[in-house]
Each structure stands twice: as structure tokens, then as C-alpha cells.
Amino acid sequence: MQSLVTPPALLLVLAMSASAEPGPRVTTDTVEYCGSLAARLADMPAAAQEPSRRLAAEGMRLCGNGHVRVGIAKLRRAVRAAQASTSDR
What we know:
The chain is an all-alpha fold. Helices cover 67% and strands 0% of the residues. The chain contains four helices and no strands. Helix 2 runs antiparallel to helix 3.
């Protein structure tokens, strides 16, 4: 079976899609990343609404208690919930 995209064309497509993004976002399982997510969420208009507020509070509590990975997961869910609330309007 023959490929639809030749290797040089594939490289061009990958390069174009990579240049469309502002830059890679490095994520790590650290307390600093918890703070970064919390700051990002704080800038969102729907962050004060449920369920974003509850998820963010729980995520920050978990990060503060040393459960960073679970805290980050909660904070990411809070960001997604805030984005969904904003797009529903």
C-alpha cells in the first residue's frame, strides 16, 4: 500500500503546524505548576463559578498536602470547566 503523503511533505506539514503554536508548554508535576494552573484559572471569568471554584480549591489543597499529581489533575479539570462555562454563554 502506497502512502498518501511523502516524507518531505509530511515534514513540511509538521513544521507548519508546529509554527502555528505559540510555543511548547512544559508541564511538570511540581508545586510550581500547581501555582501556574491556579494563576491561569484566576484570569478566567468563570473561575468563581461552580464546579470550577470547588475543583480549584480541592486541587490547591491537594498540592499543598504533597499530592501534586492529583492536585494538578483537579486544577486542569477546573480550567476545562471554566472554559466550558465561558463557551456556553
